[in-house]
Backbone:
């Protein structure tokens, strides 16, 4: 009679062991997805910060700035007038949105100002400088709208992050209730995971199209973050590049020529680094380069090449404070790629760049031991 209890006990131990293994596998899976899916979703939401250029306020502001440029560029009055009217009318159409009127007090005065400018231009009663000055108020309002939208996005991301953390906690505690259903849950999860992988792949493909800077064709800030994550545990060098006195360059030549300079410098930086670096535009006149870098001396050599390369290019800069051609300020740091180490490496490179600017620009520095 003893074999029967022993067999029963064996089956019990086998099932208990299987259940424990299923439960542990479930817990490991939950922890794994909490650490993997959450950063990926957060990275996805961070793309919206680089899509603000597609928002109405941003487009409207760009049209007004184009109108200012047309009025300030040395060209026939009729050509300047026609171009300015088109840009202002386009800006007005994008600015005249119900949600802007309802949420932002500066919208109505801004629209009134644009109407006044259009009326003056239509009657040919205008002074170029006065019109340019009149457009600053609507531009300031549109900038305020953009910044407020970014603040709203940040709040949404924080709420989403908190909601995700709470959901993970609930999911962890709830898993205790499905202990006896471990194997069934595992199978269901695997099926769902395959579906999620397909959906995630579709999302990533869409994200890839949104991770390029439209002006220069190089990557943007989000692409930089993603590429660092893709190079886990590799020794990399991060180089931050600022164009010295770029605002003065734009003031002297106009924004179209400034855009041309940005494209030329993007090409020059890539060639100077022997096309071994991945280049990114972080916004305005700031670029970043990510390059394989086994040691600090190698990174210093790259920084030196950048400074010498732009000097040899002899890009004219009529408004340079030091009476020079276009110059760069460069800061760098070496690091081992990881999501946790990248913010420190960026901060170290940024501090090196700041030291260069403080010392008078047109130079480079590398933060040791970053």
Residues:
């Amino acid at each position: 009679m003893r074999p029967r209890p022993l067999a029963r006990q064996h089956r019990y131990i086998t099932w208990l062991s299987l259940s424990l293994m299923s439960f542990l596998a479930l817990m490991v899976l939950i922890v794994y997805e909490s650490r993997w899916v959450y950063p990926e979703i957060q990275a996805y939401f961070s793309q919206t910060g680089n899509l603000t250029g597609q928002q109405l306020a941003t487009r409207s502001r760009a049209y007004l700035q184009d109108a200012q440029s047309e009025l300030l560029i040395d060209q026939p009055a009729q050509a300047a007038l026609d171009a300015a009217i088109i840009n202002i009318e386009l800006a007005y159409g994008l600015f005249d949105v119900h949600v802007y009127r309802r949420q932002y007090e500066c919208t109505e005065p801004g629209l009134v100002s644009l109407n006044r400018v259009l009326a003056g231009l239509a009657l040919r009663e205008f002074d170029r400088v006065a019109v340019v000055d009149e457009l600053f108020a609507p531009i300031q309002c549109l900038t305020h709208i953009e910044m407020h939208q970014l603040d709203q996005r940040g709040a949404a991301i924080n709420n989403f992050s908190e909601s995700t953390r709470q959901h993970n906690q609930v999911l962890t505690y709830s898993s205790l209730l499905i202990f006896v259903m471990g194997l069934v849950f595992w199978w269901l999860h695997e099926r769902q995971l395959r579906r999620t992988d397909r959906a995630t792949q579709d999302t990533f493909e869409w994200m890839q199209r949104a991770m390029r800077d439209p002006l220069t064709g190089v990557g943007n800030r989000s692409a930089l973050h993603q590429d660092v994550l893709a190079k886990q545990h590799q020794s990399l060098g991060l180089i931050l590049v600022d164009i010295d006195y770029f605002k003065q360059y734009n003031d002297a030549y106009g924004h179209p020529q400034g855009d041309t300079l940005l494209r030329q410098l993007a090409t020059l930086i890539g060639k100077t680094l022997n096309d071994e670096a991945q280049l990114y535009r972080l916004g305005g006149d700031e670029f970043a380069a990510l390059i394989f870098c086994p040691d600090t001396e190698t990174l210093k050599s790259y920084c030196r090449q950048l400074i010498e390369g732009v000097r040899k290019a002899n890009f004219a800069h009529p408004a340079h404070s030091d009476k020079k051609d276009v110059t760069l300020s460069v800061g760098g740091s070496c690091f081992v790629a990881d999501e946790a180490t990248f913010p420190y490496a960026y901060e170290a490179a940024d501090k090196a760049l700041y030291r260069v600017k403080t010392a008078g620009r047109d130079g480079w520095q590398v933060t040791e031991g970053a």
The first strand starts at residue 235 and ends at 243. Strands lie at 235-243, 278-283, 286-292, 328-336, 363-367. Residues 47-54 have pLDDT under 50 and may be disordered.
